[in-house]
């Protein structure tokens, strides 16, 4: 009888919060399950509190098709900081008992546990590198764990290059597996009338959109930079309106900036918007702008492109990958307010040199072809074939 492939997937969480790592992890589970349908897949979740053995969550379409050969182990009911210790021990004990063919972790902080297992039982492991968590790593054990990894997959060339440079890793040891997205969730559509009425806007009014957590630790996203240059943009486009979707502990500071600069009539903070309504907000805008300078990749860029919208991002981080080095978007220096303002005015006035940004269907198709789930799964299959047999 052939040996059953046993895969362990270590994930911070899938349901209790939502961010780039959570979204990536959910697609990774789908892809692995599709590529290796007869493998035994154990998903170990640090912060979620789902019932052990249950991967299907009925209000989350990402998991409705994953019902067999998947076992989940959740540690969220254990209070922090004991949870970290409990989770680490669980990773060790289950791996020693089940002897997985491969461990894949979607956060680098789990790598030291994998290194211990590599020394104890020879387990191979792959680590996923996203963004800020992969930069400026100083902890000796974590550095050693990454140097000993069988493979590191970075979500962008920017993250890969920075990780290789800082940790003295070989280029072949760190490869790129771009983020993906659900193309069916994002559609090209006219500006929703109900949102125009809700915010007192007209259909021909130029609207800029940013979708981002408003976190004090993530001010590098660039939404405050856009607030800074709004007066400049209004000189050329007087009725321009800026909408920011998202919530977080930076909300009060942003609100204060708006008041100090008398922007109340041209900026709207809408707070958290559920995924099922977010597509409407992308279709409401004429430009999606997030001039970040520390973004690991930026899935929101893909979502906006899939809605056929012109997209502006920074040229100093993973947005370069998401916008295909400027082929399907506008890349600017996020530290240069004048350059950002000039680019936004050109885009909204229909005068930008890159004419493809005004071709909605082309933008959508390019985003799907380059970053769609099918391409993600094909790339993942190529990397995993070194370690697993179908």
Tally of distinct domains = 2
Backbone structural class: alpha/beta
User: Number of DSSP strands?
Assistant: 13
Strand neighbour order, sheet with most strands: 3-2-1-4-5-6-7
How many helices in DSSP terms? Answer: 14
CATH class of the largest domain: Alpha Beta
Question: Which percent range fits the helix content?
Answer: 25-40%
- Mean pLDDT equals 92
Might you state the CATH topology name of the largest domain?
Rossmann fold
Q: What value does the Rg take, in angstroms?
A: 22 Å
Shape: elongated
SSE string? EHEEHEHEHEHEHEHEHEHEHEHEHHH
Beta-strand portion reads 15-25%
- The CATH architecture of the largest domain: 3-Layer(aba) Sandwich
The CATH superfamily of the largest domain bears the name Glycogen Phosphorylase B
Q: How far is the first residue's CA from the last residue's CA?
A: 15 Å
């Amino acid at each position: 009888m052939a040996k059953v492939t046993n895969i362990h997937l270590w994930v911070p969480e899938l349901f209790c919060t939502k961010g780039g790592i959570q979204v990536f992890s959910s697609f990774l589970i789908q892809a692995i399950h599709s590529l290796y349908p007869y493998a035994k897949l154990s998903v170990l979740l640090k912060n979620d509190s789902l019932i052990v053995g249950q991967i299907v969550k009925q209000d989350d379409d990402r998991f409705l098709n994953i019902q067999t050969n998947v076992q989940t182990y959740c540690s969220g009911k254990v209070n922090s900081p004991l949870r970290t210790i409990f989770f680490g021990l669980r990773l060790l004990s289950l791996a020693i008992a089940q002897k997985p063919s491969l461990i894949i972790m979607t956060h680098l902080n789990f790598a030291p546990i994998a290194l211990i297992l590599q020394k104890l039982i020879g387990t191979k492991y792959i680590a996923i590198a996203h963004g800020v968590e992969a930069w400026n790593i100083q902890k000796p054990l974590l550095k050693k764990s990454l140097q000993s990894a069988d493979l590191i997959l970075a979500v962008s060339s920017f993250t890969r290059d920075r990780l290789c440079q800082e940790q003295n890793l070989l280029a072949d040891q760190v490869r790129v597996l771009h983020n993906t997205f659900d193309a069916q969730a994002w559609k090209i559509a006219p500006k929703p009338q109900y949102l125009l009425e809700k915010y007192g806007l007209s259909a021909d009014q130029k609207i800029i959109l940013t979708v981002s957590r408003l976190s004090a630790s993530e001010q590098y996203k660039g939404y405050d930079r856009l607030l800074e240059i709004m007066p400049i943009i209004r000189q050329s486009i007087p009725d321009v309106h800026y909408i920011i979707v998202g919530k977080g502990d930076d909300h009060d500071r942003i609100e204060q900036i708006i008041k100090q600069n008398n922007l109340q009539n041209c900026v709207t903070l809408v707070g958290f918007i559920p995924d099922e309504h977010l597509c409407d907000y992308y279709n409401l805008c004429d430009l999606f702008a997030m001039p970040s300078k520390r973004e690991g990749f930026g899935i929101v860029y893909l979502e906006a492109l899939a809605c056929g919208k012109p997209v502006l991002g920074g040229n100093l981080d993973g947005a370069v990958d998401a916008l295909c080095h400027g082929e399907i978007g506008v890349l600017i220096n996020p530290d240069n307010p004048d350059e950002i303002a000039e680019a936004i005015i050109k885009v909204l006035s229909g005068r930008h040199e890159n004419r493809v940004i005004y071709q909605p269907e082309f933008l959508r198709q390019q985003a799907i072809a380059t970053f769609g789930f099918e391409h993600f799964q094909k790339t993942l299959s190529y990397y995993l074939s070194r370690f697993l047999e179908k």
